[in-house]
Amino acid sequence: MMNIQNFKQEWDVLVIGGGAAGVFAAIAASKTGAKTLLIEKNGILGGTITMAGVNFPGLFFAWGKQIIGGPCWEAILRTVELGGAALPRISFQPEHHYDEQISLNTFIYSYVLDEATKNSGVHVLLHTAIGSLQPVDDGYLATLSQREGISCIKAKTIVDATGDAAAVGLLNLPRVKSTSVQPATLIHDLSGYDPDELDMNKLKQQVHEWITSGRLKKEDFQGDNIIYSLKSRRIFMHLSGQNADTSAGKSLLEQQARGALMRIILCLREFPGLEKLSVSYCAPECGVRETYRIIGETSITAEEYVNGVLYDDAICYCFYPIDRHIPEGIHQVFLKPGIIPTIPYRALIPKGAKRILTAGRCIAGDADANSAYRVQAPCMATGQAAGVAAALASARGYTVQQVPYSAICENLKKMGAIIPTQSSLVD
Known about the structure:
two-stranded antiparallel ribbon, 13 helices
């Protein structure tokens, strides 16, 4: 680690990861008055929306009313304004929650994020990864891996928005990972055929024969639903068994995913009507559902989630069914009418932490609850809350536990965020 005297710059808040949570953590921190640095390992902001093709960021509405607002919703509206999305309908049908999501043009959305971070005063460093963290009395020293080499900065407070709680891991704070994590998905689109001209019964039989012979693997598909996949022009490939929180594991995952896709394409091209089947789009990387979660000051349980517990430190709503992908299929628990789950601030705080918060899918909860709050809309909302809290901690010299809940809510409301209250659950 570099000597403490050798750091180049000092920041109030360092946000690690420019995905759904990190972008809005940085914007919220800057809007709260913090000198904010956002680092992102890729060359584009947006995380799984822009890099993994998951351009349908969860649900901002519940039971006919908006439940998530603030800078993240402003970014959605700006994307709509530029012709990159259409607003969703707000009549919710639980079993068809995926139809209620907003579909974003990834280029326009990435431009909107560039614009939003610049306008809010966030300093963005792309192509930059965290190397190490060293606690000091009033914050952390961080080494950054950049194209030009290694540099060292100092930050009073950190928001870990890596998805994997990677910064938490660097500090040896407690994390947990399920014995069997949910599969990753390589999203891609297909062209070169007409679904209406395919004999789907014969195709289903042929796919079964390919699987039996070993040319295809059943686990390459979402169940055995190749028919739906071809009708939608997108094969839903799920890949299990890789440790996606390490570079070696993620590398193997990406290579296996592309290999599996090519294997599927070559087989399908042998079927009448699919001779010219082509991949018109393939996401640059796999979308990862689950790796590490922190052990937090509190933890969200599935029971609390589906019952819509209103925590005394709730900082945002979340609205998505429990949606845990398992080898047998998908374990889903839909929310009952009127139920809107909430997320507590304490679930963003790693146990034993002083000046670091998390946001996004790595916050504290059990595996089933995590399968619901991992989607992007609530990740954005937790990011906003973490950014505000980090900025307040930096300004006042507080630990993250000492930041008054009332102050977090006050600043979030100024940005247009929606804070859970009893009345909003029943009105």
